[in-house]
Each structure stands twice: as C-alpha cells, then as structure tokens.
Amino acid sequence: MNNDFARRACSVLLGLLAGMGAAQASGMPACQGGGLRMVVPAAPGGTTDLVARLIADHLARRSGFPVVVENRAGGGGTIGAANVARAQADGCTVLMGNIGSNAINYALNKTLSYGPRDFAPVTQVFAVPNVLVVNPAVSATDVQSLIRLAKDRPGKLALANSGLGQSTHMTGELFRIRTGIDVITVPYKGNAPAVADLLAGQVHMMFDNVAVSQPHIQAGKLRALAVTSTRRVSALPDVPTMAEAGMEGFDVVAWFGLFYPAHTPPAHVRWLQSEIAGILQQDAVQQQIAEWGGEVGGELPDAFQRYVDKEVAQWQSVVDQAGITLQ
C-alpha cells in the first residue's frame, strides 16, 4: 500500500515537473506570486484600457496564465511607461503602450525618464483612426462649419484630449495649426474623463479614438464630423474622412501594442508575441476590434520594432515643423 502510494505520488510529481519544463521551454515566464502584470498608461475606460482588458482576458483563458491589468494614468502615458521601463526584465511585467507613450512623447518631452531603447517591442495589437466629435449643442454639422465657428469665436471653444502627447492631443494640435483656429486645449488623464466632460458640455470638441466615442455617436450624444484615416471606417460608414471634409493629407492612426522592458529574455518575447498573434486570429476578437473601427496586428517583434522606429521619426518631424512643445 505504501509502495503504491509512493509510486502515485512520484508520478504526480513527475507530471508537474514535466508541465513546468514544457512551460519553460515554451518561453512562458515563471512569475512569483501570480502571473503577468499588464500596465495600462491611461485611465480605465479609454481605448488603451479596453484593448488591454480584451487581450488580458483572452490571454488568461488561452494560456492558463493569470493576467492582472494595472492602470497607471497621468503624464500623457509617461507614468505607466516609466514604471514598465524600470521593471525587472523577467517577462512578468508588460506595457500596453500606444502611439503616445511609445512614439509621440519622445519628440514632445525632452525630460522623459525613459527612451525607445528601454523597451523590447512584442507586437502591435491593433490600430484605429481618431474621429472628430462635438457636443450636440455645438451648431457645427461638418468640419468646415466647425472651422468657421471657431474663427468667429476665437478663444471660446474648448478642444479636449486624452492627455498631453497622446494621439488625440497631437491630432488636435495638427488640426489647430492646419486651420489657424484659436481654441482652448484641455488635456485629461485618459479618454474616458475627457469624453465625460464632452458629453456634459464642459468642452466642445475632441479628436477621440473611434472605440470610445462610437457608442455615444450611435446614441446621438455626440456628433461625428470626420475620421482621420484615409478611408471611411466600417463602424461609422456615414462619417466622412478628413480628406472628404476638405482637409487633404490629414491622416493619423492611433496604434496600440505590447512592450516588455529592455533585456527581457527573447524566449519570453517570442512566447507572448505568439500568444497574442493567436488571440488576434480568433473570430470574436477580430469582430470586437472591427466594431471599434480598428485593424488587428500580431506581427513579429522585429517588424514591430521597425514600425515603432518609423513612427518615432515621423512624429519628431511633425513636432519640429509645427513647433509643438509640452507646457
């Protein structure tokens, strides 16, 4: 009896060790006290947060690896990004970064505590255009009438954004510079609080991510004037592009992707990229991202690194030409 018990115990132990070995061979990190910590450099309810929670849920179910989403808003994404840049490179902390935290901020903020080489890009998750929305109390019904209204009332209209350095900020600044309008720029700590004030009429307009504003547009609580992509968005088929609205060459796409701290073992990077690529192929995930007006990513780390490098250079050029600086 004792021998049978010993054999069964040994068999269970060997099974557990084999499972652990398989996990290590796959590149899955061994995290003490839990699973993966996914840092969101924005407030709950915004696009970055929505994407992070979608991916975290599917990653936990797909891999059996616990994922905890942690919001660290503020500083246009710099607080959360800096937290991950300083984290231990053991594969247990990852950033759901975006165009603001991991591209635009390098051009805008000369005193950042982190830089592009403080991260190991994993993969892009998805990309989505912004949409120009106004509170229904604003009389403008299209882009050109909004421009006329702003010029008739200089310094009176308030333009919200989700944080200094975010794509919503930069898109608004480009719009202001291209049109020559005089508006009040109002930064928030994320999309959600900015949209809340827009809905309440505390601010008048905003370039917001389609994913956040779409439900309010469909409910008639916000009026959409144009999207910032080169073609119309399937989620908002009746909303023209900025080019169709008379703003040629106005093309901005917000992207979201995962970044490990620099020097994270390549095996962990490959494991997470492979898991995310698989998740992004699931019909339910693709349907959700399509409803947000976005396109899925999933590329290999090297390809994502090249894309990020290109974005960093592009926004540096825009900032230099426009003379935009953080206050």
Structure, described:
This protein has helices at 2-26, 47-63, 78-85, 100-108, 143-152, 167-179, 191-200, 210-218, 266-280, 283-291, 301-322; strands at 36-40, 67-71, 93-98, 119-134, 158-161, 184-187, 205-209, 223-227, 253-261, 295-296. The model is unreliable at 8-25 (pLDDT under 50). Strands 1, 2, 3, 4, 5, 6, 7, 8, 9 and 10 form a ten-stranded mixed β-sheet that branches. 45% of the residues lie in helices and 19% in strands. The longest helix is centred in the N-terminal third of the chain and has 25 residues, at 2-26. It is an alpha/beta fold and 327 residues long. The radius of gyration is 22 Å and the shape is globular.
Quick synopsis:
Belongs to the UPF0065 (bug) family. This protein is α/β, with parallel strands linked by helices and 327 residues long.
Number of strands: 10
Q: Give me the strand/helix succession.
A: HEHEHEHEHEHEHEHEEHHEH
The geometry reads as globular
Head-to-tail CA distance between termini: 76 Å
Tell me, rounded to a whole number, the average pLDDT.
89
What Rg do the Cα atoms give? 22 Å
What is the beta-strand fraction? 15-25%
**Treating each run of at least 4 consecutive H or I residues as one helix, how many helices?**
11
Give the class from helix and strand content and strand pairing: alpha/beta
Major beta sheet, specifics?
A: 10 strands, mixed
Summarize the amount of helix as a percent range: 40-55%
Task: Please mark out the parts with pLDDT under 50 across 5 or more consecutive residues, or reply none.
Answer: 8-25
